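Notebook entry, cofactor series.
This is the third protein in the set we're modelling with a bound small molecule. For this one the ligand is flavin-adenine dinucleotide. I'm keeping the input format identical across the series so the outputs can be compared line by line later. Sequence and SMILES below, as received.
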Amino acid sequence: MFGGGDEQQEILETTRRFAREVVVPVAAELDRQVDPEDCFSWDIVEKADAAGIRTATLSGEYGGAGIDSLTTAMVIEELAKADLGVSVIFAQTLKIAQTLQGAATPEQRERFIPDYAADSRGLLAIGITEPDRSSDYIIPFAEGDYRTRAVRAEGGWVINGQKHFISNGNRARLYLLFAQTEQGKGLVEGSTCFLVERTAPGFSIGRVHDKMGERLVNNAELFFEDCFVPDENVLGEVGQGFQVLARFFPASNAYAAASVLGVAEAAYERSFQWAETRVQGGRPLIEHAPVRQTLARIRMLNDASQAYVYRSAWLADHRDQGWDGTVGALPKVFAAEAAWEVVTETLELHGGYGYMRELGIEKLVRDAAAFLHSDGANKALLLKAARFLRPS
Ligand SMILES: Cc1cc2nc3c(=O)[nH]c(=O)nc-3n(C[C@H](O)[C@H](O)[C@H](O)COP(=O)(O)OP(=O)(O)OC[C@H]3O[C@@H](n4cnc5c(N)ncnc54)[C@H](O)[C@@H]3O)c2cc1C
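Returned structure with ligand:
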């Protein structure tokens, strides 16, 4: 695993070039497509693969760069400056690849990782959220259980149920799926994580959600009707699904925060350029003190978000250096709230021009809204973090 130094700079420079040359030229047009499926581009995925971004968290033995969690957060941030949806496509894939390497048995690693690594369209997804179970697994609400049930059968499990809102849901080749395996227990003690292949019998994809923003990533429903999954596809221990999340997903919150931070940084760039060129009151906006105050405030919010994100991502790999549960819950809340303020200030600064689609400011507002709830509703995450303030 590497982090820092020349290798980090190299992958960040590659990501910036990819974002500039591949994503920026097509993002606005893809965002405007009426059918949400048409907002997604395989060309972007294939070019990210060619640039080494898609597999960057895989270790060298699987052809990846083995980047650490801090570098991964920085890559996600760079992608999000160009487009939020694209950053989410890869945030999901990069973090699930990390989890696979950490939680899978040697046999599972050999069975799943090389095929995924070799597929230039190989994407990954995680299915936790259900129509009736969402903040309950974030907080968590101990009595809550997943409605998606897995029941023992010969040689494996039969799964029935539904997930929704799943990023990459209709595009992934492999899914981490959480299902209730012990009835009468809550999801913390009674759920199990399964590796489900796209081709699993009884697994199907439902509708693709039509979202207000973050449109370049598809989100979809997943259906399981007597879907058979063999014992060898249990990730971690039976009944310990929640522990897979807790142990192997420490940087997940930082990655979500890095995505929305990238949107806020793009908004800062746009605000600064606009303030330097738009003239009112006989001089550029930036020469009016209240505008300069706004720019300074945006810069402060972004810098504070970035510091929190980087600290959290670094601590995810160095948990003996001061990690506690709050660091796995709060950076996204801060970054999402800060980004929401930044994009609304940016909209305000652009006046009527900001509201017109041609400048792309309204896209930043629609995109930033995604992270008020994505990766956990902010208020639910505050409740989760509060549990770590006074350990019981
Ligand atoms: C763009 C996007 C992408 C997503 N991608 C994925 C994905 O890839 N995989 C996946 O599994 N999920 C995904 N999700 C789901 C996401 O994690 C959930 O939307 C989120 O957890 C909130 O759940 P909910 O929308 O059902 O809201 P609810 O849980 O219904 O919450 C609604 C409101 O009630 C509040 N609330 C809930 N419970 C309590 C309580 N006990 N006390 C006080 N207030 C409470 C919440 O804070 C919120 O304000 C995605 C969501 C979005 C929007």
